[in-house]
Amino acid sequence: MYIERHCLPSTTYGAADVVKEKIKAAKGIKSILFGARDAVANRYATSILLIADEGSYLFDTTTITMERSSRELEVLGIFDVIKSVGALDKAEYIPARTPSTEHLPAIEAAEILKSYKPDNIFPNWRGFASIFNEKFEMRSVSFYYSSRWEELSGNLTENHL
């Protein structure tokens, strides 16, 4: 398997824009795997492994997080793009803290992320959101932009009836 690691801007919005563009360009998406690792600028940051027919793309240097409302909106923007390409059912998350992999060759980093048993993000978006807090607590829906998350969950359900 070929893995291409993408160097990303240091800003969360810049990194999210690069991830969104790569998702839009990917052909035959098989999986989009999200994990949360310990970070420096934020407590936790996102690692993303996009697996598609023409190759796999690793984003393990992002500062993307859901620790604040403005950052959650950036993550929702990524999921809006995933929805637009019809891949919400391919979005998964690792229900554990993942290690930092940026120091490893891309293929090894991808293998580490793939070694975890993932859960579907939808309709369990609160489980996904919980990876961005220390104790993996399922916070109240009022803590999040729950209407946006529920809309994405509803779109997935409608497409699979």
What layout of secondary structure does this protein have?
Blueprint (H helix, E strand, L loop, with lengths): L2 E3 L6 H14 L3 E10 L5 E9 L2 E5 L9 H16 L6 E8 L7 H9 L4 E2 L4 H6 L15 H14 L2
Parallel strand pairs: 1-4, 2-5
Antiparallel strand pairs: 2-3, 3-4, 5-6
Helix pairs in contact: 1-2, 2-5
Describe this entry's structure for a reader:
The chain has five helices and six strands. It is globular and about 40 Å long. The model has no long low-confidence stretch (mean pLDDT 91). It has helices at 12-25, 69-84, 106-114, 125-130, 146-159; strands spanning 3-5, 29-38, 44-52, 55-59, 91-98, 119-120. The protein has 161 residues and is α/β, with parallel strands linked by helices. Strands 1-4-3-2-5-6 form a six-stranded mixed β-sheet, sandwiched between helices.
Q: Could you name the key traits of this structure?
A:
161 residues; alpha/beta; six-stranded mixed β-sheet; 5 helices; 6 strands; 37% helix; 23% strand; globular
Mean pLDDT: 91
- Beta content comes to 15-25%
Order of helices and strands: EHEEEHEHEHH
For this structure, the quaternary state is single chain
Number of strands: 6
What are the low-pLDDT stretches, counting only 5+ consecutive residues below 50? Answer: none
What is the CA-CA span between the terminal residues?
A: 33 Å
General shape: globular
